[in-house]
Amino acid sequence: MNESAVPSTTPRPAWLLPIWSLAQREIVRFLRQRSRLIGAIGQPLIFWILFGAGLHGTFQLQGTSANDVSFQEYFLPGVAIMIVLFTSIFASISVIQDRHEGFLQGVLVSPVPRSSIVLGKVLGGTLLALVQSALFLVLAPVLQLVGLAPAIQLNLTLAGTSGALLFLTLVAIGLNSLGYLFAWKIDSVQGYHGIMSVVLLPMWLMSGAFFPGDQSPWLRVVMRLNPLTYGVAGLRQCVSSNPNVVGDLPSIPLCLAVLFLFSFICLAADVWLTRRDQGV
Amino acid sequence: MSAAIVVTSVSHRYGERLALNDVSFDVAQGEIFGLLGPNGGGKSTLLKILSTLLPLQTGSIQLAGFDLASQADAIRHTLAVTFQHPSLDIKLTVGENLRHQGHLYGLSGQILTTRIQKVMSQLNIADRERDYAETLSGGLKRRVEIAKCLLHNPAILLLDEPSTGLDPAARNDLWNVLSEVRQEENVTVLVTTHLMEEADRCDRLGILDHGQLIALGAPSEIRSTVGGNSITIDPLDILQLSSEFEQQNIAFRQVGGEIRIEDVQSTTELTRLIDTYSQQFRSITLGKPSLEDAFIKLTGRRISEDTTDA
Prior knowledge:
The structure holds 2 protein chains of 2 kinds.
Chain A: H1 6-9, H2 16-31, H3 34-54, H4 71-101, H5 103-108, H6 114-139, H7 158-185, H8 189-205, H9 217-225, H10 227-239, H11 243-246, H12 252-276
Helix pairs in contact in A: 2-6, 3-4, 4-6, 4-7, 4-8, 4-10, 6-7, 6-12, 7-10, 7-12, 10-12
Chain B: E1 3-14, E2 17-28, E3 32-36, H1 43-50, E4 58-63, E5 66-67, H2 72-78, E6 79-82, H3 94-104, H4 109-122, H5 138-150, E7 156-160, H6 168-185, E8 188-193, H7 196-199, E9 204-209, E10 212-217, H8 219-224, E11 229-235, H9 238-247, E12 253-255, E13 258-264, H10 267-276, E14 281-287, H11 291-299
Parallel strand pairs in B: 3-8, 3-9, 6-7, 7-8
Antiparallel strand pairs in B: 1-2, 1-4, 4-5, 9-10, 11-13, 11-14, 12-13
């Protein structure tokens, strides 16, 4: 067989077109399944209101006085990250469903580069996560008007807003790539729920999203090792203009560096895995 | 005529289990080739290897002139595959499914629109373009899937048990479609099946059992290996009847709960059996050799018990 004849007889596989096509499919599917919308944004919103009301007056950040920071104000970026997490989980579960329904096999026998398959999935999940979490950050402060949220000091500058979008995007890429990694290896949705409970949710809990955790020495260490901590910290510094909230969080450049690295490693692992296991 | 598929000495192991054992055959261009065999015989493994989903362990395979081991990407451009489960996205419409499929093969814009119109009219599904895939019947889903496959003008079409879940009418329809497509596009078709009446519609067949190719040829050639007609008896008491046959030196074979006498030369043999053993059977039939008979002769077993559903 003449190796050099191959490129001239077969078209170059498209790279960008399949990425966009697969991502678009994720979005269309999402919009056609209303229950996913409710699950991904409704639950975090309810958590935010209920925890805010429940812990009202009992929450106090270290080094601040009682009414400097309400729990809801502290929890706001945490809930945005929670929405990103839930959306990423739902999006990556679709890898398992695609495998069961045979759609994935159809994609794997096509000449699409394996990296396009990964990037298509991750891009779809990322766009969904970004839109929903941004929507939450816009809507949540409006709840002040109806008494479901206390006063919140938001950083409404251009730098703050674009920084927040950048952090949400990076966290979404990282979590979607991480979710893909699990979903590729697990062959049932039930199994994936197990991973969600013991890995993904604790990862979120130990990111400073829900509590500062800096009073426990071991928790402090775990949190410093958790890449999601840098997502929450970066986002918090971008959305809040309350000096008491920001405290001694990791610097923004450090947060960006960790998230870039984390997303890159997860994406690379996804591509490697998808190339190695040819299919089935 | 040049061969579109050349399989040479292919073996495949899952750990200790040998799923394919030194399988070799060729498929000519434009041929409909069937792989017949019981479930677990190795058909699906071979199909997965051919469709680049499983790595080739030993042996070599050429598809449309490309070497599978070194040119998988080139092969993916010329190949189309349908699996047992339809690979349609049920939340999307027929048109959307086709559009996404086209994108995977680098087709877009006006070229893609033209191709979609063409395959939809070819498979008679143009009026379903806006229907959600989940609302379609099994037979229509198969049609859409074949339409998906033809979008990129493949040279080779692989179908894994395409009639799974189809009623006999839809199955017949599927085969008519396959014949038309083969004629219009000169595409080579390889199909796996465990149904005899499907196997009979192929140009040539390979029979796979326990990972080995035990027969290869046109259905008529394979049937002719059985010899003459055969008599099948459904006995009331198989032990009693078989021991009587042994005493009478009648050559027979026990298959499942039935007794078969092969290569029957004249009808007098049948009438003699009816007269002599009239109290001992529920039914007695004389049949021309079928592929099932050939399989029984080769293996001593029926291909599967659920082939009577047609």
